[in-house]
Design a protein that fits this description.
Distance between the termini: 61 Å
Number of strands: 4
Number of helices: 5
Strand content: 5-15%
Oligomer: single chain
Shape: extended
Strand order of the largest sheet: 1-4-2-3
Number of domains: 2
Length: about 170
């Protein structure tokens, strides 16, 4: 192909890429504006929806939540605190990670402790999952497994939350 044609194609591709990035930036700002101010009720419903999706609802009476997304973990802890007045010392945390990360367990525990502000003394023994990886991680050293959050003596609160979720199911 002629050099001028290649240069023109590169220029067009760069322009298209720049336009896509500008549009993406605009849409992200618009999305943040769509949310607007979040009321206490909004926060309450958001947390219920999150618990409905990720919280413990099965046979156990434990109030628990497990996820790998740091922002979701922090939101859940703030939700418990702001809506139900659960203090950090009422939480019990446990890391779960594939056994291939055994050499990093302490590093992973420190990561979650620093993120949440909850001391390692409130963590139970890390659960090492002994199955073959289904997912291939681009950088194994930035994978931190999942974090389980349980509330001490949280049975009554769990039942209350599940009652609220029952109400949401009728909408």
């Amino acid at each position: 192909m002629h050099e001028n044609t290649l240069a023109a194609l590169r220029c067009a591709a760069e322009k298209k890429h720049h336009m896509r990035l500008e549009k993406e930036k605009f849409l992200l700002v618009a999305g943040r504006k769509d949310v607007g101010k979040i009321s206490r009720r909004d926060l309450f419903i958001l947390g219920l929806a999150l618990y409905w999706g990720e919280g413990y609802k099965g046979l156990s009476d434990e109030l628990g939540f497990t996820n790998s997304d740091p922002a979701m973990i922090l939101f859940f802890i703030r939700w418990l605190s702001k809506v139900y007045k659960i203090k950090p010392n009422q939480l019990i945390l446990r890391v779960s990670i594939n056994a291939s990360h055994t050499h990093r367990v302490r590093q992973v525990e420190y990561y979650w402790s620093r993120l949440t502000g909850i001391p390692l003394s409130q963590f139970t023994m890390t659960s090492l999952i002994k199955t073959a990886h289904k997912k291939v991680y681009a950088n194994k050293n930035t994978h931190y497994g999942t974090l389980r959050i349980k509330v001490r003596s949280g049975t009554d609160l769990r039942r209350r939350i599940l009652g609220s979720i029952q109400r949401l199911k009728t909408l």
